[in-house]
Amino acid sequence: METVQDLQRSSKRMLPIHSTEDIRQMLGTEPVNLDIIRDPEIYRQEQEKIFRKNWLKVATTWEVANPGDWKVKELAVCAASVIIVRGKDGVIRAFHNVCTHRGNKVIPTTEFETFGHARANVMTCRFHGWVFGTNGDLRSVPMKEEFAEIDIQRLSLREIRCDVWEGFVFINFDEKPGQSLKEYLGGFGELFAGYPYAESTTTYRYSTVLDCNWKVALYAFSEGYHVPTIHAGSLPGFSGIEHTNYRILGPHASSAIYGGGMDTADSTLKFAEMLHGTEMHRPRPEQLPSDINPERRPDFQFELPSVFPNLIIHLAAGCGYPGLSYFTHQFWPLSHGKTLWEGINYFKPPQNAAEDIAQRHVNALHRNAWLEDTATMEDTFFGIMSGAINDMYLMDREFLIRHGVDTLNHYLNKVEA
Amino acid sequence: MSEFKLPEAFADLTRLAAHWAKPTEYQRSRLRWSASKEDFEILYDAIMPRLDAILSYMKSLPVKPIGEADRNLYWLACAFAEASPHHELYEGSAQVPHSFVAERFVAAHGDVS
To answer: Minimal CA–CA distance to A332: which of A315, A313, A314, A309?
Structure first.
């Protein structure tokens, strides 16, 4: 049985595209046991062995574009509130949002994500007024002389490992991660590198709390098999879809969605014409990294990867939905049976009101498709929890799921029977 | 209270705009969720033949139009952009058929226009 380290080491060697036969041989073909979704004990292990040990995407560099800009992300799965902040020196760091005095939140929050700016590059706890710099240093303690014992040097905000790949900010709760972010992303990082992600700063972000295990939501977005059925409403005629270019990239994997034949509605044609008539928003296949859509097929829609444990970046470069550069999904467990889903559409900034309106149309179409996707998730989890079925039978196009389960089992050190 | 205004070339759409032109995505969504098949049809039949003209006019405006009449037309166009699939794809249904409850989706980018 290969270990995760073996998978990591082999990721570069495995960048080539695999055939269906390869995938069947590499990942097996047997049904996948559903305990991995059903068992609350496995969720507890995932918290410790996966979410507290691996690199997790929590922000983009342009969300904290200027010194002093911060984002707070609540991560229930790691029982943590995290400040991601750009320091005066331009460096992005991550800290526990915990005052080192008595444990209060330095930045009080009520949402899953909160954005703000640290005036004068300091953050002040509202409880007793302890002041921290954006580099984490404890700068000031009111009535310091009344502390018989206090070591300012040792009372900086507790830092969390933080690194950046292509403008995406990742953190790792492990104080000594076994791998750097670059090593961890491995073949995925190479395959997806080079696209100008940071140019697409216009975002439409949706989130919802789903009554399902996080992997039910992740796996629902990890295959193209469902498109002709689930999306018959929002993507009529989209039956010619092809899900191919399978790649295993260590703990991550990728594939491509090709296919045309969609019956585009009249208003969509108008908005698409508007966007495609501009240099900025037209399809940009030439901007795709060379290994993505390597044959430069004109019917390329988007690359569909799975970035372990909980991220999907669909890279389209405007080739699929008009003007849509890419879109991301993340699946954050809130508990064994509760998940925060986040979907973000990324566009290049509109240059005038007409482009903005056209992007809103594309965003609405895509959001509607997401409404169709999310419709299945709570029912699926309910069905799995009922115990009526013990396994899931997976077809070739569902290989990202099979690979995801394999990877999960490697991390949990649980060998499949 | 001043009269609801649109740019002169689009003055014939004033009544429709007074109903549909709302400044935020959430406000427009709420209106859409309560719309009937006939509401979508009236909106579509009025705007679709003028869409080229509206987009052509909007090309000369900044992303967030400033003048009151321009802003109203922009909001009407946004409402149309978000509502046209309900007429073209969903047979006039206010909800996307066979979908998740739209109200449970939070627009985390904020309720901005």
So the answer is: A309
Neighbours of B71 (CB within 10 A): 19
Contact A186, B86 (CB under 8 A): no
- Chain B closest-CA separation from residue A209 CA (Å): 8
Measure A278 CA to nearest chain B CA, in Å.
Answer: 11
The pLDDT tens digits of the residues spanning A210-221 come to 999 999 999 999
Q: Which value does ipTM take for this structure?
A: 0.97
Contact B7, B95 (CB under 8 A): no
* pLDDT exceeds 70 at position B113: no
Predicted local distance difference test score (pLDDT) of residue A233? 79
Q: Which of residues 187-246 of A touch B (CB under 8 A)?
A: 203-209, 230, 233-234, 236
What confidence score (pLDDT) does residue A267 get? 97
For chain B, state the CA radius of gyration.
14
Name the burial class of residue B73, with classes exposed (0-12), middle (13-18) and buried (19+) by CB atoms within 10 angstroms of its CB.
buried
Dig out the tokens for A77 from the structure: 């799965």
Give the Å distances, CA to CA, from A69 to A88, A168, A410, B63, B72: 10, 16, 38, 24, 33
Angle at A240 between CA A237 and CA A243, to 5 degrees: 130
Contact B97 A374 (CB under 8 A): no
Instruction: Answer yes or no: do A236 and B82 touch at CB < 8 A.
Output: no
Contact A412, A49 (CB under 8 A): yes
Q: What is the pTM of this model?
A: 0.94
B74 lies within 8 A of chain A by CB: yes
Q: Count CB atoms within 10 A of the CB of residue A333.
A: 24
Tell me, yes or no, if B53 comes closer than 8 A to chain A by beta carbon. no
pLDDT at position A14, please?
43
Q: B-chain residues within 8 Å CB-CB of A236?
A: 89
